[in-house]
TrEMBL record:
The Tol-Pal system is composed of five core proteins: the inner membrane proteins TolA, TolQ and TolR, the periplasmic protein TolB and the outer membrane protein Pal. They form a network linking the inner and outer membranes and the peptidoglycan layer. The lineage of its organism: Bacteria, Pseudomonadati, Pseudomonadota, Gammaproteobacteria, Lysobacterales. HAMAP family: TolR. This is Tol-Pal system protein TolR. It is a single-pass membrane protein. The gene is tolR.
Length: 142
């Protein structure tokens, strides 16, 4: 009887790993990450004041509207040496009168880095209300 037990064939152990469940889990995780990754980037920092843009070329110097750090507006005309502080309604009236005389009038908006973006957009809204078509942003060259 002992000889009958020893003659049984023992099953050999498999030394392979079944990777199919791991592939399924990996594909599910990939889909989860693809869906959630765009949701994680809700805000980011922007550093706008520098640019590689070319300087303006033209015969006429532009009108410069500056947004100061405290939110005040100033206007520098091409023939003036220093900008003058101005409120939004007066700025709109002056730019509107200038645009009525010259349809090709160019206006540049300049703002300090510390100025809130909302104030720059408000200045651009005033310029748009004055019917100015050519508006640019001033930046420092790199």
């Amino acid at each position: 009887m002992i000889s009958g037990i020893s003659r049984r064939k023992r099953r050999k152990l498999k030394s392979e790993i079944n990777v199919v469940p791991y592939i399924d889990v990996m594909l599910v995780l990939l889909i989860i990450f693809m869906v959630t990754a765009p949701l994680l980037t809700l805000s980011f920092e922007v550093d706008l004041p520098t640019s590689h843009a070319k300087a303006l070329e033209g015969k006429q110097d532009p009108v410069i509207v500056s947004v100061l750090a405290d939110g005040q507006l100033s206007l520098k005309l091409p023939d003036a040496k220093n900008p003058e502080r101005i409120d939004a309604s007066t700025l709109q009236a002056q730019l509107g009168a200038m645009a009525a005389q010259d349809k090709g009038l160019r206006v540049i908006v300049a703002a300090d880095r510390a100025v809130a973006y909302e104030k720059v957009v408000a200045a651009m809204d005033v310029i748009k209300a004055a019917k100015i078509e050519k508006v640019g942003l001033a930046t420092d060259a790199r």
